[in-house]
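Input/output pair, single chain:
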Amino acid sequence: MKYNFDKVIDRRGTDSVKYDILQPLFGSDDIIPMWVADMDFEVPEFVREAVVGRAEHPVYGYTVRPPRFFETISAWLERRHGWKVKPDKIDFSPGVVPALVLSVLGYTNPGDKILVQSPVYFPFFNAITNHGRVLVNNQLVDQNGVYSIDFSDLEEKFSSGVKLMMFCHPHNPVGRAWTKQELEMLATLAIKYNVLVLSDEIHSDLLLFGNRHIPLASLGKEIASRTITCIAPSKTFNLAGLHTSAVVIEDPKLKKVYEKILEDIHVGGGNIFGFTALEAAYREGDEWLGQLLEYLEGNYDFLKKYLSEILPGITVSPLEATYLAWINFGILGLDDKELMKFMVKEARIGFVDGPRFGEGGTQYMRMNIGTPRAVLKSALDQLADATRDKFGEKF
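Output:
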């Protein structure tokens, strides 16, 4: 079946975070929103049919997650990533961010050091600092928009007594799909210094241009025994509003700790329609996902070519995974506040400003390209017109 990702869908007035809070967030409704990480593509028909089918039953009472819920996740991980995980090693979370917070509460104590790698997904910071933990940063090395891990600095930070590492894999916002060699080096250090790794692998299905996702915990028993892996269908199939994620914990003691904190806070009930959607997506979603990845690759190629030809000097980092483009606007010579004002008031586009992702984010912005190409082109045309108007012959 051929799926249509060119279809433009009006999402305004649907209580959409992406579209319906533009005024309070950006100070204007007259912008193209390309900020929050949900796609503008319609949910696959087989997922909608499954949800509607369940909704037709007239009772929406308390529910349980049946064995097939975990079996479906296990089968997806093996099929897509070659990772054999027993269903009883999988647990639930109402989202990956809640899983991060639950893990911070369950595995660390106030005053413990938790490491991140900026520029990185900004909820990492609040999950640490809002709960009295100490944030330690192993900043990624930026070489003309291509990012790598500073392993020398990482070892130094680990040796200082880091208890937990929040690892973004694939990385948001810089678009890296970490290689096996990089993952093995990380695993070696985590084992050496007894650091627990909380691996956010929510974008693991969105690997582009022949890159392959290697789950960190798949590298061997030692690293698996100290890894908590967070996954979800929400980015892959555009299901964020259903708040259904999964956590893979191979070590029985760590899993028991997670289950206790989940029970103590009483957020383990979940959403009956989220369960239904996850099962349908992971059971039937391979063909749809294959076509989505091709479309996203086309969007990235379009973006890169457009910038190169129309706005030379504005550059985008190589995108190995995710649908989030990391763009360097340093050539404009604007500070971060001026850059955001320019984007909203003159280009009329809503991006996420780079400083939100921590150190290394200045003069960068994150752009969501998970949208029909016509919308992407409109945003780029607005950017080009505004840039020429403001900077003249420079562009």
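The chain has two domains: 17-41+286-394, 47-284. The longest helix spans residues 286-310.
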